[in-house]
Amino acid sequence: MKIVTYNVNGIKARLPRLIEYLTEAQPDVVCLQELKSSDETFPEAEIRAAGYGAVWHGQKGFNGVAVLAKGVDPVERQRGLAGEPEDEHSRYLECEVFGLVIASIYLPNGNPVPGPKFDYKLRWFERLQARARALLAEERPVILAGDYNVIPNDDDTFSVKAMAADALMQPESRHGYRALLAQGWTDALRTRHPKGGVWTFWDYQAGAWQRDAGFRIDHLLLSPAVADRLAEAGVDKDHRGREKASDHAPTWVRLR
């Protein structure tokens, strides 16, 4: 079973690339982020025509998350995170499909640092940690998949110096991520590529793709009940190099 996280950077603009990916890779589940689409304009018909059911939590112009499943409709469990009722950002969607609990996550970017956007990022991280603890208590096979906007380690970026002032690499951001792992979650990509050097994002600016100047911010965290089923983890990097592609590449795990 192949589970994918894919920040599409605008589902309407990238729809040909998404359908192409679904057709070629035939993943079982895909968690999408940064839909930049309202619920009403989500391209359900095109996705169903490609053979996938979908649940989505949209927001006009930015944010937005979805869970797609091959041949079935995922069952929604929760949208949004508790703890900040005034937060209207569409960043968390949790579903059940194929015996798994899967969440699609789009963590706030947090730039500039310092500032209210970074403060919001850290509060959101704390709310995610609380939900993650509750999910672990269920002792179910759970995958927290998404764009975490965190570069966890120095070898997860092409240049520590270039990213040093960025919210993605601040000590507080890394602490939030490591606090999740300390609960008992397994970083699937790191487990399969322990030496780092695996990128999931390449900026559109400054020829980043051509220079392979990327970093790893898309992560799939596995609960203990599913971590022992991990067979492989990787990045479908070639899809980043296609015409009018997202700046992220599909990142995946394969389960036994």
UniProtKB/TrEMBL annotation:
InterPro entries with a match to the protein in the record: AP_endonuc_1, AP_endonuclease_F1_BS, Endo/exonu/phosph_ase_sf, Endo/exonuclease/phosphatase, ExoIII-like
Cofactor binding remark: Probably binds two magnesium or manganese ions per subunit.
Keyword vocabulary terms for this entry: Hydrolase, Magnesium, Manganese, Metal-binding
Ranges for region Disordered: 236-256
Cofactor(s) needed by this chain: Mg(2+); Mn(2+)
Single GO term (MF): DNA binding
Annotated ranges, domain Endonuclease/exonuclease/phosphatase: 4-248
Residues annotated as binding Mg(2+): 7, 34, 147, 149, 247-248
Chain positions of site Interaction with DNA substrate: 248
Compositionally biased region (Basic and acidic residues): 236-247
Residues the UniProt record annotates as site (Transition state stabilizer): 149
Site (Important for catalytic activity): 218
GO terms, biological process: DNA repair
Catalytic residue list: 106, 147, 248
Record family assignment: Belongs to the DNA repair enzymes AP/ExoA family.
PANTHER family: EXODEOXYRIBONUCLEASE III
Protein's recorded name: Exodeoxyribonuclease III
